[in-house]
Amino acid sequence: MLLAIGGFGLCGVPEALIEAVERSGARGLTVASNNAGIDNIGLGRLLTTRQISKMISSYVGENDEFERQY
Prior knowledge:
Layout: E1 2-4, H1 15-24, E2 29-32, H2 44-48, E3 52-56, H3 64-69
Parallel strand pairs: 1-2, 2-3
């Protein structure tokens, strides 16, 4: 499944969508977003639970978990 996630940094991030995807337990996600959020916030939540298998991003930012998995 491909998710295109909007927002910039932590502004405008669809938190309700991210929370619903996390609860669903969906795995093997490909996510296209300009960044990976930060640890445990925004897309960082899905990275922590290892639900994202591929990220398409232009900015790694301050997400230590994303860096570690990369």
